Amino acid sequence: MEQTQPEAKRARPPSPQAQAGEPEEDRLSALDDATLHAILARLPLRDAAATTALSRRWPRVFATLPRLSLTCATFNRRETLYEYRDGDEYCDDTNRWTYAIDGILDGRAAPIASFEVQIDFMDAYDDWFYDLFREICRSGGLRELSIWNTNSTDCYKVPSPVYNCPTLTSLELYSCRLRVPGSLRGLRAVRSLQLHEVVATDADIRRMISRCRDVERLVISDIRKARNIVIRASNLEKLEICSYRPLCISVKKALRLDSVKLSLSYGCAELNWSVHDNEDTDGDHSISEIEEMFGFEGMEEREHEQTDEIANMVTFLGGLGSAKTLSLNLETEYSKVLSKAKSTMPKRLLKKCQLLGLQKLTLTMDHNHEAVATLVSCLFNSSPNIKDLEIIDPLDIRYSDPLAAKFWEKQINAECVQNHLSSVTFFMSISLFKGRPCLGLPQFLVMNARVLKRMSIKYHRSNDKPKHADLLETVRE
């Protein structure tokens, strides 16, 4: 019986490198860990985790990934990965989400340096997230932490391990509730602190900011409940504050302050106000009390009646003596509020409070409204070293009677603009040459700023004829 020889295996054709006598080059594996981490950081976390199957090296690369970023949809099934509910991402299985995070943390070979979470179910898993933040904050390597609670109704209470993390240099919180303990062991190394729509009392805000003694950048956006904010930060360089409701902001001993931005957006209570803006929203309430809590327009009106808006502004400006750049964005509704103030704006700040370091001033406001014009005048009279000025009309401005140059001559000490002001730019919402031209302040500056090199007037909409471009030149004659 004849035996058949087994068929020989077909040999693979040699690669071009083998034919040339050179080994094949694995360029990806040749990269160092830092470069691979930078690549994985650009991938969704679930895709970055899948790289652990590539070779023996890759599990270690993923296990030492310094930055983890999580959203609701991070661990969704592929078929629901890009589905949305009411325009937002959602988690199709919260249990799978938490199990996945547990698995990733169990396999870690190095502390997490940067952790960002942006989800809407932290309150539902409060104990689990407490343990998560405790583990991360105690790891000894956490530098950056961002907690974004996207739940539109409930604020997430910041867990105590966050306050006691000694290694944090950057902390960002969104829609969270602050209850800062009286004694803290952490936050001393924080250099960037961002608080967006947080719920906090005056004492909580003051305690937290003072604890971040090395903070260089502070952002406070639409804070809830707090009315008075005291900022003591000797290393503070950049300050940004946005608010839809009156705040009394006192800045103390900020000798390194360089850049300041303040935006006040009044008149949209139904859109911006929340039940958390009440002084006391904890505990049980009657139906009438609950109805009052949701009467946002009435709340806003009462608050404006009880607030001394001019005193608030003077207090705020009084702590900015070292700032080099100042931007005030005061929308049209602010003009109405300021005109109802019971006190009057001083012509200049007290000598010890003057803005002697200010070099660039940007004003987004209706400077032709007489109440606002007194604020503009106070700024000029208190800032003798301004070099660069920008004045921007709000987009929803409605011009009334423009203020003439004679008004500004009475309000502003000409010496304050004579020797340093060199650049002026006006951004107008409508043409100045339709009806009565709004050239009072530009005319005053042209006549008094001796070192002025450039004045520019720009329009959002303009049908002006070329002949109007030379109008300012005639002012000098």
In round numbers, the mean pLDDT is 83
**Shape annotation:** elongated
The largest sheet has its strands arranged as 1-4-5-7-9-11-14-16-17-18-19-20-21
Strand content: 15-25%
The low-confidence parts are none
Number of DSSP helices?
18
Characterize the main sheet.
13 strands, parallel
Distance between the termini: 123 Å
**How many DSSP-defined strands?**
21
What is the structural class? alpha/beta
Total count of domains? 2
- What portion of residues is helical? 25-40%
Task: Output the radius of gyration.
Answer: 30 Å
Could you describe the 3D structure shown?
It contains 18 helices and 21 strands. With 477 residues, it is an alpha/beta fold. The protein has 2 domains: 111-226; 233-278 and 292-477, no CATH class. The strands form 5 sheets. Strands 1-4-5-7-9-11-14-16-17-18-19-20-21 form a 13-stranded parallel beta sheet. β18 (360-364), α14 (370-382) and β19 form a beta-alpha-beta unit. α15 (405-411) packs across α17.
Question: What is this structure's SSE topology?
Answer:
Elements: H1 16-19, H2 33-40, H3 45-50, H4 58-63, E1 67-71, E2 84-85, E3 88-89, H5 94-106, E4 114-119, H6 126-137, E5 144-149, E6 156-157, H7 160-163, E7 170-174, E8 176-177, E9 192-196, E10 199-200, H8 202-211, E11 217-221, E12 224-225, E13 228-232, E14 238-243, E15 248-252, E16 259-264, H9 269-272, H10 287-293, H11 296-306, H12 309-317, E17 325-330, H13 332-339, E18 360-364, H14 370-382, E19 388-392, H15 405-411, H16 415-418, E20 423-428, H17 440-448, E21 454-459, H18 471-475
Parallel strand pairs: 1-4, 4-5, 5-7, 6-8, 7-9, 9-11, 10-12, 11-14, 13-15, 14-16, 16-17, 17-18, 18-19, 19-20, 20-21
Antiparallel strand pairs: 2-3
